[in-house]
Amino acid sequence: MKIFVAGASGVIGRLLLPQLVQAGHEVVGMTRKEEQKEAIEQTGAKAVLADVFNREQMVDILMEIKPDVVIHQLTSLSQGSSAENARIRIEGTRNLVDAAKQAKVQKMIAQSISWAYEPGTTPATEETALDIYAPMPRNTTINGVVALEEAVKEIPAQVILRYGTLYGPATWYAKNGDTAQKIMNQEMNATDGVSSFVHVEDAANAALLALDWPIGTYNIVDDEPAKGVDWLPVYARALGASAPDIQSGGSPWERGASNDKVKNECGWVLEYPTWRTGFAKSLR
Ligand SMILES: NC(=O)c1ccc[n+]([C@@H]2O[C@H](COP(=O)([O-])OP(=O)(O)OC[C@H]3O[C@@H](n4cnc5c(N)ncnc54)[C@H](OP(=O)(O)O)[C@@H]3O)[C@@H](O)[C@H]2O)c1
């Protein structure tokens, strides 16, 4: 198939591109940056320079390429601004979807998140409502997620991947990542809030496999949603950092997510089924 990857140079895109090429697909990867082209082309994909906020450029590119599938792995997280990330979800996705519709793209696979669910005490399933009444600043993130998912559903076939918190190479949890640095500096307490993690290799592999998955929305998380008081000491140990301070409580929406649906309906098998062993493996 001919596959267009928006976000080809991102933390997931970089791992996904070679997998798509090896699976025999003709792949075009998008970046805004001349200096990223070489890395994209080394995977065997073709690189195209474009900015998703340039609507006409997106239409021209997709009309020319006419891909069978668009994989949307765009985020704007390098600057650490949730407003910028919401903008790419809202305006960027709008442009990408409109361009894809004009180019008669039949399938879109898109990156979303698994921590946008309403408050609760058990891991969220895909049936759980999104947290649309969340107060600011969380509201910014939720609005972005809702807009992204709604827009993607305008494509005839769509798979929405609600990823857990990524860990592994080049993520915030890598040795030189932001979270690792905070933990090394004892700036993060272990709370009762529950998170779901996913190794970035499993995240990329899910996007490849989703080419054959039925239309739907899936939590792409590992098997073990965990409280901060459980996972953070394990992660700190793997990093060689001191044990974190404990702080009781957590946000009511910090409930983690269940991967039952994607395992049962798509037969997804994880390379890293739990952070419990995955953190140490990924930091070796
Ligand atoms: N679920 C999660 O926990 C999750 C998910 C994603 C990322 N993250 C974290 O966020 C950090 C940064 O992520 P990242 O390295 O993937 O970088 P990023 O800055 O979020 O960029 C991701 C991708 O989007 C592209 N992009 C951004 N704005 C664009 C625009 N206006 N037009 C076209 N393309 C655009 C980038 O391309 P160019 O910059 O090459 O143009 C890149 O390919 C990582 O360390 C990771 O841990 C976490």
TrEMBL record:
One of its GO terms (cellular component) is cytoplasm. It holds the Pfam family Epimerase. It comes from the Bacteria. GO terms for molecular function: aldehyde dehydrogenase (NAD+) activity. Residues 3-213 form the NAD-dependent epimerase/dehydratase domain. This is NAD(P)-dependent oxidoreductase.
